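[User] I have long wanted to understand how a fold can be written as tokens. Those tokens are not coordinates but codes from a learned vocabulary of shapes. Could you go through the record with me and say what the backbone is doing? Thank you; the sequence and its tokens follow:
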Amino acid sequence: MIKIAASDHYVFGDRINKDTYNQPRGYIAFKGPGLLTSAIQPGMDHASSYYGWPESWPGAWSSYNQVTYIRGAACSIEDYPATVLLPTITAEALSSGESSGSAFQHNAGVRSWRDVLDSSHR
């Protein structure tokens, strides 16, 4: 999830809440030859970019009914790559069980909820 600078903009006011937002939180788009994805650029979202949607946005992730938000410690993920390039692989290779992958790194940190609130008021 994303930490914002303000502590007054949130949906739930209680300390513990189950996520009931039923829309996707993000999408996965594949770009390459033979796909209707030439107009898709990193950072675009479906709210303002409709290039081939949903055909060009084949995967989505959601936290609906799967996540309980607890205002306790907050984790931050930093220094992650916006785009991870996968090595080319054919449909035939995928069908025969081969895979394609690419390693990437990120940094994570944990702070108390009080620290998060205090830092947003500076």
